[in-house]
Amino acid sequence: MKEYWNSLASLLGVLAFSHSLLQLVFPPELRLLSLKFLSRIFHLFSSYCYFDITEIDGVNTNELYNAVQIYLSSFISLNGNRLSLTRALNSSATTFGQSNNDCIVDTFGGVTVVWEHVVIQRQSQTFVWRPFPEEKRGFTLKIKKKDKSLILHSYLDYIMEKSNEIRRKNQDRLLYTNSRGGSLDSRGHPWESVPFKHPSTFDTLAIDPDNKREIMDDLKDFADGQSFYHKTGRAWKRGYLLYGPPGTGKSSMIAAMANYLSYDIFDLELTEVHNNSELRKLLMKTSSKSIIVIEDIDCSVNLTNRKEKKNKSNDLETRHVSGVEDGVNSTVTLSGLLNFTDGLWSCCGSERIFVFTTNHVEKLDPALLRSGRVDKHVYMSYCSYPTLKIQLKNYLGYDETDLDSDVLNQLVDVVSKAEMTPADISEILIKKQSCNHKAVTELLEAMKLRADNNLKCGSLGERENSSDEEQEKRALECPKGLILNSLARKKRTWRR
Ligand SMILES: Nc1ncnc2c1ncn2[C@@H]1O[C@H](COP(=O)(O)OP(=O)(O)OP(=O)(O)O)[C@@H](O)[C@H]1O
């Protein structure tokens, strides 16, 4: 036993001596050089090439690293033995990631590639302006030399595109609003955001099915239209005007659009904007793939018809935003607003939809509504039979076949005469969810009553053409809501 320990000690002694000898004749710099040389020889004869994508490029975060991470997480299965799990800010989805120094195989365009996630402990940091993470992370892409020129660029482009898509899908949409009084938040941003969780979708939206199809197709064409807009030299943006009586679903439509396209919403409160330059700054801080909304534009900006105003003033610059509610005047002008939607500054981002809503379309200046600024005018109307069917399905789960044929005929007959908004109808249907038949009966009664009242207070044509005095007289005589209906009919006339 003693002999054994003796020989072990002398062996260790020899090893220590050889190690110090090696250090002396073969210093670390030389060793590094020989390693590099060996690796060059290896790569020269290897049929593979390697690409390192580090997490931090110099002092900046490498976008490609994040993209690869998200892309790979989309097909790492739950069956893996060791996966990293992450959840981003404002995200309701968990992301699965490759564990340290693991490899994963992918195929693109018939070519197989291997990804390795390389994690190395960073050496202790001396003073740096920006502290780096303790670990140095990166991906190494291993690809056959002969395939490199075939796929490398298209593969990386595909990864960027796919990761953006996944990121948008996983991340909750945000609803931004401009801060009160134009103040900036702690990050110097003029918009405040909250997660956007509105449940409205085109399935739940009660509008004419043909109209709905047309809008959905238009939005899809817009979202897929990058090359079209590029080819035709147009800014990649689209303008919508949603108009109609209150409660016909203008806000619900905006939410459905955002959910359909997975876009964020920037809800611009014009009365909080002090001047054109503030408006421009707000625009510059909006992101791509977003819907910029100005609700009730007739209430926030004094945009009465240009022709009517011409005698009073020819200068667009003199038209001011009026803080209608608080009486504060600011100096955002109509031309500032037109530049916002259509000028050079409107192109500082891309893939954005401008949506204006109003209950009084006749008050808006035609300059604001011309093509290019507002490409699509959507009238949000009272309930018709096709839209009523959607609401019955949404609230009661009823199809036509679930209704008694007599009740069905009465509903078909009375619905357009009643001129009720989807909001009116939902108010009735929402109360009676425990007893569906009772809800339908109550709805039918309410519709008949409305239709009777409409009849008593004159035909639609009469109301549309009546003078303001007559309308006021009717307001006193007729039940609440009918004068509103008459105004809304006027808007419909404008649409035609
Ligand atoms: N077309 C519709 N489809 C489904 N639900 C609707 C529709 N219109 C109104 N509603 C219901 O009525 C409520 C109010 O609708 P919404 O706020 O979208 O109307 P609006 O036209 O924007 O009204 P306002 O002009 O007063 O802002 C919604 O929460 C929704 O439940």
UniProtKB/TrEMBL annotation:
SMART domains recorded: AAA
Names of required cofactors: Mg(2+)
UniProt KW keywords: ATP-binding, Hydrolase, Magnesium, Nucleotide-binding
Chemical reaction(s) catalysed: ATP + H2O = ADP + phosphate + H(+)
Pfam family name, one: AAA
InterPro entries associated with the record: AAA+_ATPase (IPR003593), AAA_N_dom (IPR025753), ATPase_AAA_core (IPR003959), Mitochondrial_chaperone_BCS1 (IPR050747), P-loop_NTPase (IPR027417)
Residues covered by the AAA+ ATPase domain: 236-384
BP-aspect Gene Ontology terms: response to stress
One term of GO molecular function: ATP binding
Family of this protein: Belongs to the AAA ATPase family. BCS1 subfamily.
Protein name: AAA+ ATPase domain-containing protein
